[in-house]
């Protein structure tokens, strides 16, 4: 019988193999992220049975109406990250400003975390997959002092690790520490995330494109032409492609990474910079994509090379199988959209 490898065991093995001199700080941080994910999973799975489903009657800093589970997920991840003692600050989609921890165990913390606690939360009421996205950086400011804005405004290339949790028919945690991508499925019978998707590699190409075509008339010309290209029949290039759009970045990306595909969130007339946030949505997903053999860009540049200017900065985002990303870039360049 094949040995089951739990998330914590995998993290320790990876540390011993790849980072033998490490002191376990990063491992403890990931351990607490896993605990928070289990707690959020529990509430997501019983959301219809208790008073946690639906709108909270408040808005987040983005001006988006918060769901009750948005608030629960945010508070749960923040509490676990602080409890780890390895996180000195958090940038969250749900909070207008940074949250810093510089007392107690966190006084010597080396890491900061950027996160979207509950991606796709507008889908909660109709039982569609939602997720959590996170990225981890080493702080730049001196240890023992409060984290600063500069700690968070780092390029994606400075990321230590990134991951996401998808709460769907099964709950899966996917992460990379810069040495490949691995996925762990939560086994509810033992309460552990177990290795289920080792060394994930995305196909070079695919047949799925993911975009909200309801906004077609507002898309840049290059995106419009690419969509028409996807819809044309051509046996040589295995077209037409299939349109699949869930409306949850984590769910759409997870499917495309495993099956081969392209996720597109372009600028529109009403959102000239796109709607997805660079720090805690685009950067971590781009890092995971590249580690799995995919590609990601925003405007005319590799997403991970962008210098963040604000905590909640928005950028256009294109991510997926490398050959599909390259073909889309051709259309955007021809239309002078990038």
UniProtKB/TrEMBL annotation:
- How many cofactors are bound and how? Binds 2 magnesium ions per subunit.
Q: What is the lineage of its organism?
A: Bacteria, Pseudomonadati, Bacteroidota, Bacteroidia, Bacteroidales
- Give the primary localization class: cytoplasm
Q: Which organism is it from?
A: Candidatus Tidjanibacter faecipullorum
Fructose-1-6-bisphosphatase class 1 C-terminal domain sequence ranges: 203-332
The alphabetical list of record keywords is: Carbohydrate metabolism, Cytoplasm, Hydrolase, Magnesium, Metal-binding
The Fructose-1-6-bisphosphatase class I N-terminal domain covers 6-198
Q: Which family does the UniProt entry place this protein in?
A: Belongs to the FBPase class 1 family.
Q: Which GO terms describe its molecular function?
A: fructose 1,6-bisphosphate 1-phosphatase activity; magnesium ion binding
- Superkingdom assignment: Bacteria
> Under what name is this protein listed?
Fructose-1,6-bisphosphatase class 1
- Positions with a binding annotation for Mg(2+) 1: 93, 116, 118
Q: Which pathway does UniProt place it in? A: Carbohydrate biosynthesis; Calvin cycle
Supply the InterPro entries for this chain.
Answer: FBPase_C_dom, FBPase_class-1, FBPase_N, FBPtase, Fructose_bisphosphatase_AS
Query: Which cofactors must be present for this protein to function?
Result: Mg(2+)
Q: Where is the protein localized?
A: Cytoplasm
Q: Which reaction equation describes what this protein catalyses?
A: beta-D-fructose 1,6-bisphosphate + H2O = beta-D-fructose 6-phosphate + phosphate
Gene3D superfamilies the UniProt entry points to: 3.40.190.80, Fructose-1,6-Bisphosphatase, subunit A, domain 1
> Entry's HAMAP family?
FBPase_class1 (MF_01855)
Query: Which GO cellular component terms are attached?
Result: cytosol
Binding residues annotated for Mg(2+) 2, in chain numbering: 116, 119, 281
Checking SUPFAM superfamilies in the record gives: Carbohydrate phosphatase (SSF56655)
Q: Which Pfam families match?
A: FBPase, FBPase_C
Q: What class of enzyme is it?
A: hydrolase
**One GO-annotated biological process of the protein:** fructose 1,6-bisphosphate metabolic process
**Binding sites annotated in the UniProt record for substrate:** 119-122, 212, 245, 275
Assembly, per entry: Homotetramer.
EC annotation from Swiss-Prot or TrEMBL: 3.1.3.11
